[in-house]
Amino acid sequence: NAGVTQTPKFRILKIGQSMTLQCTQDMNHNYMYWYRQDPGMGLKLIYYSVGAGITDKGEVPNGYNVSRSTTEDFPLRLELAAPSQTSVYFCASSYSTARAATNEKLFFGSGTQLSVL
Amino acid sequence: KNEVEQSPQNLTAQEGEFITINCSYSVGISALHWLQQHPGGGIVSLFMLSSGKKKHGRLIATINIQEKHSSLHITASHPRDSAVYICAVPSGGGADGLTFGKGTHLIIQP
Asked: What are phi and psi of B30, to 5 degrees?
């Protein structure tokens, strides 16, 4: 059982370049999330999805786009990369909403360390 | 939007000591998560709790909904417990997803 698979693990971009961070899960989870983690700060929600075809903005969506064409995949697109997007990115998934008492666990990918120079 | 405060930010202890990490939040919630981030960066979910107490091995998590406070305890601490421990609560404001604390960096010395 692979869980949440995130690629790539590391990437260096030049200012203005674009890239897609891939995230796939094999647990048939409806809920998927993208977070970024900056040094000394808590993870911040970029975008989330409650099911295929449904996405919504989180706390820090500017400069990013997402899509959810299948239950398994939730790619994060960076357009026109900026130094402020240097961060560690985590994809996560869960069976039900993170707000619900019925949700026992979140599953995280291994992270992508992105530098924009 | 829910705000999360964790204490202490850093904690160094000797092997075998009883460890307590605290988490306070500002808005009433239905669920609180405790997570562990390994030195390599990977994040693992430890507990989700909505009331009372949960125990898994040497880890115990408690929550007081009225006081908006949760604690994570580690009994008989071991160097392999060294990690960052993160508390997270529902963000509120209509968005799904969580608001995370900044984490408690725990080092257990042999």
From this structure: -110, -10
